[in-house]
Specification:
The complex is a heterodimer of chains A (about 260) and B (about 190). Chain A has about 260 residues and is mainly beta. Chain A has three helices and twelve strands; from the N terminus they run αββαβββββββαβββ. Chain A is elongated, with a radius of gyration of 32 Å. Chain B starts with a helix and ends with a strand.
């Protein structure tokens, strides 16, 4: 018994002299907040005027080359499309008529000019739209000649004027409807500043054309599918033509995250 | 009794005191809210400052040396892969979760005593693996040497240029990451060399 007590006492004494390895530590928490950035830089005149005051302008139309420059920077996958809008003072899906000249003509004179009569041409093809299903995936085709009307460049519009984005069957400037993958229907994050400038997927020069024809029926007006004619004769019957006057509309460029 | 003697030797202490002081915000925030910041990155210089004191004035043990490590921890969320930042929340469905090694660290003092050198390096380690600032080479490099890996007893009050470490952080995420809030914990550990 005495021996056991002695052993315990020695154990206790030795334990009291045992040391742990000396340490000291401090902590820092690092937080990274990656905020999504979608940045569309657009250089364009506030207003593009197309004045048809010469017979040749009616026949050949007026083209405004590179009137709008679109430059994109994004940290997320994205799509870009254009949509025509108006206040609809003569009806949804039509140019606003600000004034008519004189009595406005007679007979077939019509002030319902479809928004789709405006044609766009983008300088760089849409390289990220393999999932597109429509007749035209983008606006990269050359403007069709007068003798061969086509919807290849007619502006996308939502007939209900609800701002509904184009579907897979319609035109996008870059990317497309859906969320399959980059290349199929989305452009990967990047910027015109670092991606090669004028020939990259992040830089688009936009040309505009309006071709009234003579009589002024706007043969290049097509519905969003690119195949259904919306020229004034097709829409309103033979003998229709555009009522002389001042018309306005708006083109919106929508850059949105592909998700 | 022989067993008790061995136990005592295995826990031998070489230094009398090791103390690590840190002046830093407990959170270092990097907010990327412009394209320039994403591409150019954000550098925060001197955000953390470490001050080391290692004392053996009582025992005068010549084997008193010290190590200084950084450990990175991302494991608050158990589903976080070992090589990624812990995602607090994400804003988008596309993009990659940032890797731990995208964090860049620079450790500075005037004598460049850190084994990591005086330039930024990527934190190319997994949780549990140390980034060695001062290592245990078995050789004591005394205070005042003003060379790499000074690891003898000393204090920042007497040898400021060897026992003080300014810590810089840098992040340049680029444009391929998933937007969101991410977090890492850095643990600075000062130990006496075993």
């Amino acid at each position: 018994m005495k021996k056991s007590i002695l052993t315990l006492a020695v154990l206790a004494g030795m334990a009291s002299t045992a040391f742990a390895q000396l340490k000291d530590e401090k902590d820092v928490t690092i937080t990274m907040d990656l905020q999504p950035i979608l940045q569309l830089n657009m250089s364009t005149p506030n207003q593009l005027d197309f004045v048809f005051d010469d017979i040749n302008k009616y026949y050949a139309g007026i083209t405004r080359y590179a009137a709008t420059i679109l430059k994109i920077s994004s940290t997320v996958n994205w799509d870009l499309y254009a949509i025509g809008t108006s206040n609809g003072n003569v009806g949804a899906g039509f140019w606003d008529q600000q004034i008519k000249y004189g009595t406005g003509g007679s007979g077939g004179a019509n002030n319902h000019l479809p928004l789709s009569l405006l044609e766009l041409r983008q300088g760089q093809a849409n390289n990220n739209a393999t999932a597109a299903t429509g007749a035209f995936k983008d606006y990269s085709a050359v403007f069709p000649p007068v003798a061969s009307p086509s919807g290849s460049n007619s502006l996308y519009t939502d007939p209900a004027s609800a701002g509904t984005p184009p579907t897979a069957a319609h035109k996008y400037i870059a990317g497309h409807s859906g969320t399959t993958a980059t290349g199929a229907d989305a452009v990967a994050g990047g910027s015109y500043l670092t991606a090669g400038g004028l020939t990259s997927d992040y830089y688009y020069a936009i040309d505009y054309r309006i071709l009234p024809g003579l009589p002024a029926v706007f043969p290049m007006a097509f519905a969003a599918d690119g195949t259904t004619k919306q020229d004034l004769v097709s829409a309103n019957g033979a003998g229709s033509y555009a009522q002389p006057g001042v018309y306005t509309m708006n083109v919106q460029y929508i850059l949105l995250e592909d998700q | 009794m022989a067993g008790i003697i061995i136990y005592n030797i295995s826990t031998a202490q070489f230094c009398d005191k090791v103390m690590l002081m840190m002046s830093s915000a407990s959170n270092v925030d990097f907010t990327f809210d412009s394209f320039g910041k994403y591409v150019g990155g954000i550098t925060q210089n001197g955000v953390s400052q470490l001050k080391v004191t290692v004392d053996n004035s009582l025992t005068n043990n010549p084997d008193c040396r010290w190590n200084l490590f950084i450990y990175i921890d991302n494991s608050s969320n158990p589903v976080t892969p070992t090589d990624e930042w812990e995602a607090i929340n994400t804003h988008t469905s596309t993009g990659a979760i940032p890797k731990i090694n995208q964090l860049q660290i620079r450790v500075r003092n005037r004598c460049n005593t850190s084994m990591t050198g005086s330039s930024f390096f990527n934190a190319n380690v997994l949780p549990g693996q140390p980034i060695i600032l001062i290592s245990n080479t078995g050789i004591t490099i005394p205070a005042g040497s003003c060379t790499a890996n000074v690891n003898g007893p000393g204090t920042y009050t007497h040898n400021y240029d060897e026992y003080t470490f300014d810590i810089d952080y840098r992040l340049a995420p680029g444009l391929s990451l998933k937007s969101g809030m991410y977090q890492l914990r850095l643990k600075y550990l000062l130990t006496e060399a075993p």
